[in-house]
Every structure is written in structure tokens, then in C-alpha cells.
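Hello, quick one for you while I still have it in my head. A protein chain has come my way and I'm curious about its shape. I'm sending you its amino acid sequence along with the C-alpha cells. I'd be grateful if you could look everything over and explain what you see. Here's the protein in full, and shout if anything looks odd to you:
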Amino acid sequence: MNQERILVIDDEPSTPGLIELLLKPEGFQILKAYSGADGIRVASEEHPDLILLDIMMPDIDGFEVLKRIKEKNIPTRVIIVTGYGNSIPDVVRFIKAGACDYLLKPVNPVEIVRAVKRALAIETTINLQVSDTSPIVEELIARAEKLAHDNLKLELQVKAIPNQKHKHLLIMIMIRLLCFAIGVGATLLLLYLNMITRTWAFILPVLIFLLLLLPIESVKKLYFKAPKAETGVEM
């Protein structure tokens, strides 16, 4: 029985060797390439069953390598293994280009083995861009992109909450000071007109302050609310 061959494309010299130590005991033959250009060459000549592809490489980045491998119709599967990019748009971008899985460094050795076996279990090689295939996949990608947009919107809303709270607090302090000033002013006027005694001069400002503040406190709940996150994503 022929060994399934795995090509590791990574400009970090130690990575292909470490992956070989990990996968060779599992019965896989490991091919190595230390640059994007070399990876394309080896993939074109050897047609490996699976490629573990790094993204950040100095000559040709992994995304361009993936595109060229697909353009050449090399019958292989590609798993992205990288420390670069961990957002949903990044994942969608690679899947659309033809990758069948996406792992972030540092990856647990057990997870690498599982991902390799899972990818090799696919009956046919992933050879066409996802955008050219099933509408179901397109729908999933569209939902993932919508989720990314909703997450970004939620993050902006969460960041805005502290500033809004400070603004609301300042407004409420100013309103309270204004209510108190009105109470004191009204009391001084009544005292000047001899309409109240000196005893009431100490009590009346507080009463006026409270009477003015009660309706304001009731209305505050309607107008000073933190924004609610509305993702509305159905999966």
C-alpha cells in the first residue's frame, strides 16, 4: 500500500521537520518546501495528497501559493497552518480560494493529526474554488461574512458604551445642579418677598430640588439607555 504524501510548505526551517516527526509515525511520507516558489514547484512535480501551507512567507505568500496550486489543477487538498489572520473574513478568503481546513499556530499536535486524517478522508481532492461549487457552501460563506460584520458592529457598540456613560453622567450632574440652583433661587425670592420664614428657607430648596428631580429621573430611563447589540444571525 502506497504511503499518502504530505507536502509541508513553511519558510521556518524547523516547522517541516517537527511536522515530519509528528506525522511519519502515523504512516505518512513527508515532502518539504521552505518557500512559496519551492512549494509550487514540489506540488507541481510530486502531486502530494495533502499540503500543509504557511501564509507569511517572504517570496510568495501562502494565499498566492494556494491560488496557483488551484489554477494548475493539482489534485491535492490544502490545509492552512499559520499564526497570521484569525478573523472570519480571513477564513472565508482561504476557503473560497480552495483550502479545506484552517489551523492557527501554535497548533496542538493531536489536532494536526486529526485535521490531516479528516482532510484525507475526503473522497475527492479539493480542486475547484469554493465559489464555483454548491449554493449551500455559498450560503454558509455569506452567513459567515454577515457574522463577521455583526461582530464588528457589536465591538464598536461595546467600545462606545463607556463614552456614552460618561456623557450621560455629566448631563445628569448638570441637570441636578440646575434643579438645586432653581430651588435656591426660588427660596431667596420668596424670602425677599417675606412669603416664607427663615426656617422654610433651609427646607424649601431641598423640597423644590426633589420635586424637580422626580420627573427627570423617570424620563431618564427612556432616553439614556446603552445600545443593544442586534446580530440577528441565524445558523
Q: What stands out?
A: The chain has seven helices and five strands.
